[in-house]
Amino acid sequence: MSGVTDVAPAAPAPVVRLRDTLRQGGWAICLLAVPLVVMEQLSREATNTLAPDIRDAFGISDALLVALAGFAGVALTLGGLPMAWLADRVRRKHLVVASASVGALSLVGAGLAQNTWQLFVAYTFTGLAAAYSNPVFGSLISDAYPVGGRGRVFSLQAMATPLGQAIGPVLAGAISGVAGDGDQAWRWAYLALAAPYAVLAVTAALFLKEPERGQADRLGLSEEDTRPHEPPVGTWTAFRRMMKVRTFLYMCLGIGVLGLALFTVPVQMSILLGDEYGFDAFTRGLIFSLTQIPVVGAMIYGGHQFDRTYRRRPERTVHIAGAAILTFGGLVVVGVWFQPIALLLACYVLASVCVGVALVAVSPLVASVTPFVLRAQAFALLPVFTFLMGGFFGSIFAGMISGSYGPRLALTIAVAVSAFIAGYLFLRGGRYLVHDIDAAAGKPPAAQEEP
């Protein structure tokens, strides 16, 4: 690799205990990131759980309700890009406080909506309120916490999603049940969830501190960083530069393709359990909630192992993620054809654990190959690839197969294509990781060469 840099490549980061990691970077970022991500997931799970009641209350079709709720996903995905642009230019604390406040108000709006237009607006703002999460918290965690320990902090943030999926259906159903048997009881679930959202917004305003941009990266360099501070760049410029970082490119393509499975499996599994095994909505929700418990544990453990593996051989973290994705695909493709429900669910749980372990590695890897001036926008790009490459069009494709041939074949085709291509792309990208880490620490991505 040719070229001279004014900064020596970062020395291997020592593994830092989680307590010391949180002490060095501050407890507030982690202690706010986890419950805020949980709240974002709870709002989505409330909609999924209460969908039949909401449909009946407004007298609309299933398709229209899915479209209304689905637009929250569009707003969340596309809203991440302007949020990342803002995160590079304003104090990120303000974005967290404002987004949490909008999230609370949007849940109140959903609970008080009197027509489908008002419900659509409320759902859209629910998605926009969560759009900040990846770019803002991704860059905050990367800047605040030492390289040797931030894998575990990222794993805590990542496990907030399955944690929300685990408690969301039960919590939303319990609140609605306590509210009574009337056709308007679902509204109380939204209104009740708005209260902790608002409390978190106030807490962020009082306690969240803004770390210096690139703080953890500079502390990890073996020599003093003498590079001039680069001003924020535009979205298109950031996109072009990040596409030249091979590890990031392969991970984006892999996550994008994997989106087909991530969006398809929950829906088609629910259809399979309902149509072929006769499970009602409550039973399906309970199964999906219990499934997330081992996923949470695996993600916490995976974050701990990530930091240790990254210290010794960074490229192995990408290889482990790729192998976990391939294993996920194999378990689903084989397990979905088991007729005994115990075997089917066992394969589903193990597959969910594997994809959880793989996803834990993504955020710290993005942070390691991304110059801090591009980091927020890099984190915002990942959901765009996931949603547009695999999630949106892939779900439609899988739905067409399911409608004609059933959910088993839809799961087999969608997951086989998605997981095996994604796993290969991750394994392929691993060969560039060490080169890209050094490049991010010492020279702009645009100057990288083939290792």
UniProtKB/TrEMBL annotation:
Q: What is this protein called?
A: Major facilitator superfamily (MFS) profile domain-containing protein
Q: Where in the cell is it found?
A: Cell membrane
One GO cellular component term noted in the UniProt record for this chain: plasma membrane
> Origin organism of this chain?
Saccharothrix espanaensis (strain ATCC 51144 / DSM 44229 / JCM 9112 / NBRC 15066 / NRRL 15764)
How does this protein sit in the membrane? Multi-pass membrane protein
Q: Which residues form the Major facilitator superfamily (MFS) profile domain?
A: 29-431
- Gene3D superfamilies attached here? MFS general substrate transporter like domains (1.20.1250.20)
State if Zinc is listed as a keyword.
Answer: no
Top-level taxon: Bacteria
Sorted alphabetically, which PROSITE patterns does this protein's record hold?
MFS (PS50850)
Quote the Pfam families the UniProt record gives. Answer: MFS_1
What parts of the sequence cross the membrane? 63-87, 94-114, 120-141, 153-176, 188-208, 248-273, 285-306, 318-337, 343-367, 379-403, 409-427
- Keyword terms of this UniProt record: Membrane, Transmembrane, Transmembrane helix, Transport
For this protein, the record's InterPro entries field holds: MFS, MFS_dom, MFS_spinster-like, MFS_trans_sf
GO MF, one example: transmembrane transporter activity
Chief place of localization: membrane
